[in-house]
Amino acid sequence: MIRKNFNRDWKIIKGSNSSMLSMLMGGGDMSTIQLPHDAMIHEKQTPDTKNGAQTGFYPGAEYVYLKKMYVPEEWLEKTAIVEFEGVYRTAMVYVNGHFVKKNLCGYTNFYVTLDPFLRYGMENEIKVIADNAAELNSRWYSGSGIYRDVKLLVGERIHIPADGVRITTVTANEKYASIEIQTEIRNLLRTKEKIKVKIMFLYEGEVVAEDIMPVTMFPQGEETVRQSVCVMKPKLWDCGHPDLYECKVQILSGETVLDEVSEKTGIRTFSLDAEHGLKINGKEVKLRGTCIHHDNGIMGATTLTAAEERRCRQIKEAGFNSIRSAHHPMSKAMLSACDKYGVLVMDELSDMWTYHKNPQDLALVFTDIWPDLVERMVKKDYNHPSVLMYSSGNEIPELGLDTGAKMNRDICNKFHELDSTRYTTTGINGMMAVSFSCGLDKILSDLIDDYKMEESVDHTDGGANAFNSYMSIMEGEGADNFARHPLLTEAIEESALAADITGLNYLTARHVLEKELHPNKTVVGTETYPADIVRLWKIVKENPHMLGDFTWTGYDYLGEAGCGIFHYDGSVNFSSIFPERAAYIGDMNLIGYRRPVSYLREIVFGLRKDPYIAVDRVNKYGMECSKSAWMLKDNVASWTWNGYEGKPAIVDVYSDAEEVELFLNGNSMGRRPAGEENNYTATYELTYEPGELVAVNYKNGHESGRQALYTADMEVEMFVDVDRTELKADGEDLAFLTVKLVDKNGRENLWESKEIQVSLEGAGTIQGFGSADPSTTGSYDDLKWGTYDGYVMAVVRSNTEAGEISVTFSADGLEDKSVVIVSY
Fold first, then answer.
1. Other CB atoms closer than 10 Å to residue 340's CB: what's the count?
2. What is the DSSP string of 548-583?
3. Which intervals hold domain Glycoside hydrolase family 2 catalytic (predicted)?
4. Global pTM?
5. Where are the beta strands (DSSP E) in 55-163?
6. Distance from the CA of 181 to the CA of which of 97, 323, 365, 449 falls in 20 to 30 A?
7. How far apart are alpha carbons 58 and 40 in whole angstroms?
8. How far is CA 170 from CA 245, 399, 571, 572, 668, in A?
9. 200-247, pLDDT tens digit by residue?
């Protein structure tokens, strides 16, 4: 089927939470927008929302979307379908007033067949009610409305239906590759017709293999055709060389092309076993992974190709080679970005099955819809070379029950039934599984008795007090003892073995034990604490059965607000403090600025050879702060602390070298051991004085790398870094403009703060403007924002008309800075 963009000229109005009233809405109060569109990000944060910190205090609501479309009479012999790639949360679709489709999962794509309800030769109306009013339904920022692409699919009398082409690499090596293309074909007419199916495999626009097969299409019949092509000297896809081919499938009637489908794909093979780990094209690969949520920071959940590509590219540049989509099916745009940049994907089905984590979440309907969700997910993912494995679920409580184990087998078997080329896993949370298996009070008692731990809180009621006792001992040795406990083995064994790969959340000490218990099984850290990377990566390197790690998390996100914010006022993490909006636990913050933990991880991975200097905030020295297991240190790469001259400062040097030496204004602060034996960190305590701070690596007694920080002048100016100066005039392209404060020498000043205003003229709009501040009441629709750690960012979206876009930033006392972007 021919796919057409269907994002333009929609209207939106806030609904009434009444389907009848919402159906009648329309007209004067509606505003015209272009999809994708996240309605939640334009709402005002409120402390009164039931969602609280889970969505960053953004409330849910109902929204009505309306689109008019002219349907020509020649469509009488065709079929028309609309694909919605994502509508959060419940979608009700109407065509010319007739109810057509309901979709219950906000993260899965779905198709709506228009044919029975169309009026030909005239205007038609499509209405979508996106209902996200039921609070609470998400543990993170979900967004609201039609936040992913919408496509119109039109099929001729004989056509390839949606998701009708499956491309499989059968064998591949440097000499040749055998590729199977399976094509579904549908005949709408009551007459027989002979056609041909033509396959063309192209690389950089040139045909490298092709095949033609004759097929008789019987009246109103469907056929499945399998063809094979051989590609000589193929460019094999992997993380380092993400070469992509185009597979073009044509339906020919004589010389006439009735239908054409084009799919980007890669040629590659996967293999997996406990003795050799994961291999791509026969070469061993360790998963340097991160979990990510689906929002794009100051853009909210709006899913545009340029935003997904930017985030994927930044993740890859930070040293990751794999992404876990937490905890829902990944967008098509992000899948394509992962294909393009060579990032492997663990795509995840759901965050819950039969037990609620929120009263209005997907557990209400999961048992009724999961087979369909799995089928849609596989169809979406199948042709993407980046997709390595499917996760059946995240931290499912009932995995500690035999019925939960059976359900996991059923889900994993369904994945294999639909796709035999990928692997399955499950993100298992030991605490939740044990709670359902034997109860927290039992395992707490055993841990206390067996390991002589002190019981800090009464747990005899088996409820909230037991949970608090558990949390009080689940640090360090207590967590490791829990991870290796026989009761945990009993609780998770059957569920874990139902999948191809045992996936463990926050159970690092169990990874080697799993090899002893199940020598034929591979293991992956599906979710791990950021600070655990040093110990965990050593286990990954030394054990072939350990495939790698997915940290929580590589990129900061909206919702789950405050779990990683450093509180110095006595506040406690996870306590829903208004107006916190972001989790603040990403290696990169909301606008993509890499935090020190990101560079530590890159060094641990063996990808960075220069040292990295991280300074504990000098203005917070000696102050008590809150701490959760997801937090490393409240530090930044800055040696500018105006007003704190003569005050103590703690400096960490991250390094893989045997020794490092720190120099302050040319004076040595001494050499210290670093490298893996010292957690890749050498720590100094010194007195802050402005100037130059230099760290030097030494290997075998010789310098092997260095990094410097400089004190910036307090007199600053704005520097604008724009990632692109040319955009497509399609209404969906983006440019990211990062404004930072620098002195006359170009040195970043993270200490100074300025209120910066943005204005735009020309063929574009401001999609979002803001900083990485995790706790603020500002709206990303505001045109004035204060810098946070010296930065603020504007996202510019193109219009549908070509022209220039002039963006100007201004601040009191500073010279204006302007950037011109060309949209064509």
1. 18
2. EEEES-SB--BSSTTTT---SSS--TTS--TTB-B-
3. 278-439
4. 0.96
5. 62-71, 79-84, 87-88, 90-95, 98-103, 110-113, 122-131, 145-146, 150-155, 158-159
6. 323
7. 7
8. 15, 34, 56, 54, 60
9. 999 999 999 999 999 999 999 999 999 999 999 999 999 999 999 999
